[in-house]
């Protein structure tokens, strides 16, 4: 996710724009571990600490990822690709590999409506807005809003992409700044695995949707988080219409991105051009993991493995680091009752 580190006094720091200490990375992964362990994060203080850690990493990412670079792990789906090419024929030919766009359009296509142009759409956890911006071109949204916890991401989205009918606001998925029944569609793309209170998020989605409105959700799950998700469905205020396992489609996109010379590899190399060699190798290997390499069973080279273990050893200086094992990538479609 976040290339371009430099090392200083036992920490890993970001060059040029802002700093990211090893401790920040450690806190991020510890939060991801807690949140995905299948239990509600206990206290408000612990929830807040998780959100601060998540925000720090995504703040860093939204300052440093180039336009068109990956926003999510992506999806490779021939039908969605064909659907997109009807309206944006060269979407994957110039400044993107197209997989992140496909994940967005998969989620919107799955709602099954021919025309979404008159719907009021909310993208919760929109990052720096490129997914919603792209989807609004494909589906012709006239009234769409993206929301993210991360102020930098929202500033970047508004500076580059906002226009009449498309804007971005800073906010928390667990406390949506919208009135009851204000929205027709809520999408949530690869974001909810970072929410400490999943129950509250689902109830917020149900609250802001109008009766008959749709919730289209894609995300990765650990086994424990999946069990928690299933247990929360009946009390969410939503009618759950479909669950689709898209693990294979996501893995296919990740594997394409991991290939030598891929768009992602070239983009990462460009981004890290000014980083000293050793740090480039260290952070490059971390970046591959953050783009889903482990999930897709990527065969790291011996050199990549070595760099990764050095990096993990550095992180461990900040405390113990528990592994998080994501086992599936799912799409869920629900409707407000
Ligand atoms: C992996 S990124 C995905 C971004 C975007 N959906 C995409 O697919 O391109 C996850 C995003 O969720 C956001 N996020 C995390 N926790 C959040 C919360 N509690 N409320 C709103 N956004 C949150 C992060 O800041 C980050 O931008």
UniProtKB/TrEMBL annotation:
Domain Methyltransferase type: 122-215
Pfam families: Methyltransf_11
Single Gene Ontology BP annotation: methylation
UniProt-listed SUPFAM superfamilies: S-adenosyl-L-methionine-dependent methyltransferases (SSF53335)
GO molecular function, a single term: methyltransferase activity
Entry superkingdom: Bacteria
Key words of the record: Methyltransferase, Transferase
Name of protein: Class I SAM-dependent methyltransferase
Lineage start: Bacteria, Pseudomonadati, Pseudomonadota, Gammaproteobacteria, Lysobacterales
